[in-house]
Amino acid sequence: MKQSPIERALISVSDKKGVVEFAKKLSALNIEIVSTGGTARLLQEQGISVVPVDTYTGHPEIMDGRVKTLHPRVHGGILAVRDNELHREQMKQNGIRPIDLVAVNLYPFIKTIAKAGVTLEEAIENIDIGGPAMVRSAAKNNAYVTVIVDPADYKAVADEIARSGVVSIEKRRRLAVKAFAHTAAYDAEIAGYLSKVYSGINMKKN
User: Fold this and answer.
1) N or C: more exposed end of the chain, with fewer CB within 10 A?
2) Could you tell me the pTM of the whole model?
3) Which CATH number fits domain 8-197: 3.40.980.10, 3.30.70.360, 3.40.50.1380, 3.90.78.10?
């Protein structure tokens, strides 16, 4: 299995630390950047060429942003097995282009529920859906895709791409494990919070 050069990255982050510098490095390497919402606006303001996700998918963000990346052109691009002829043909038929790198971190649920007077509705709106789905898709397909959930990993990944055009399988595997740990911890925080809030509800199975 030969690793293809990284040509396209999807960047969508709540924690914007280091993302501009990272995106500039990728852009300088002629890597296309697909992005969403506030991340796309920030990068564009910094003069970085970005393809908005609604342009990439051909479908607008809907339901106040609840649905924007849950689209076959996003997840097909992440999950496709590059060596699978059927996958390649289905990508061609459906206008799906490979996404080789996913840099995503999640809505700030923990910070939200730590605020004094936070309502249940506010907490619910800060439960990320599309972000964990992309992270898990990329981590699952680490044979081909690099996933980053921690800004501390930006530099090492960008430096490796600059040197060789790819990210080593060893690094992709380490980042995948880190990504699954990240989403597991995130879900545990949500479950813990809702368990307390809903403690008066009988949760037994019927």
Assistant:
1) C
2) 0.87
3) 3.40.50.1380
